Amino acid sequence: MQYIEALTPPTVMAVFFGLMIRALFRNQGGAAAAKEDAVAEAITSSQSAQ
After folding, report:
1. Is the pTM of this model over 0.90?
2. What is the pLDDT along the chain (50 residues), one digit of tens a residue?
3. Neighbour tally for 40: CB within 10 Å
4. Domain of life here (predicted)?
5. Helices vs. strands in the chain: H and E counts, helices first
6. Distance (Å, rounded) from C-alpha 49 to C-alpha 19?
7. What b/e readout covers 2-37, taking b as 16+ CB neighbours within 10 angstroms?
């Protein structure tokens, strides 16, 4: 039964990590993506101009 205790934490972390990655990919884009891209472009262009 020690092997179950040893495998449980990494398994749980792997499942939650997979769910987190899935949530990140599903929330990419959408209505706010263009606004975020414009802000990032403005920041990088202002930094490169200096």
Report:
1. no
2. 898 899 999 999 999 999 999 988 887 777 777 787 888 888 888 777 66
3. 10
4. Bacteria
5. 2, 0
6. 40
7. eeeeeeeeeeeeeeeeeeeeeeeeeeeeeeeeeeee
Amino acid at 18: G
Tell me the C-alpha distance between 25 and 47, whole Å. Answer: 28
- Tokens 């959408």 found at: 30
The number of folded domains in the chain is 1
Handedness of CA 7, 8, 12, 13 (dihedral sign): negative
Distance CA 15, CA 26 (A): 16
- CB count within 10 Å of CB 1 equals 5
